[in-house]
Amino acid sequence: SYGYGWVVDKSDMDTHAIYHTGGNPYFFSLFYRFVQSDIVLLFATNNWNAVLSGQVNDLLEVIEVNNQSEN
Predict the structure, then answer these.
(1) Which of 37, 41, 46, 66 might form a disulfide with 32, Cβ 3.0–4.6 angstroms?
(2) What is the model's pTM?
(3) pLDDT at 42
(4) CA–CA separation, 40 vs 67, rounded Å?
(5) Partners of 40 in beta bridges
(6) Of residues 35, 39, 38, 56, the one with CA closest to residue 47
(7) 56 Cβ contact list (under 8 Å, min separation 6)
């Protein structure tokens, strides 16, 4: 779902997240909130290789897996 610039998503692990991304050719940012756990990830970089390599997705997956194991 999408509302007012925010993406509302349900992951494969059945958790909900709200996120928004932004950027330009020199900068990228991400706000990602795991709703059930009140965990928020704020990510900002001027290195597009961090975005293109999938490091952000890897970090989100680690947070989600660790959060699931705690519940």
Answers:
(1) 41
(2) 0.73
(3) 92
(4) 12
(5) 33
(6) 56
(7) 30, 43, 50
The two three-digit tokens of residue 33, written as one number:
């909130």
Three-state secondary structure along the chain? CEECCEEEEECCCCCEEEEEEEEECCEEEEEEEECCCCEEEEEEECCHHHHHCCHHHHHHHHHHHHHHHHC
Per the DSSP assignment, residues forming a β-bridge with 41 are 32
Angle at 3 between CA 40 and CA 57, to 5 degrees: 40
Alpha carbon distance 71, 68 (integer Å): 5
Please list the rounded mean pLDDT of every run of 10 residues in the chain (71 residues): 80 83 89 88 86 81 78 61
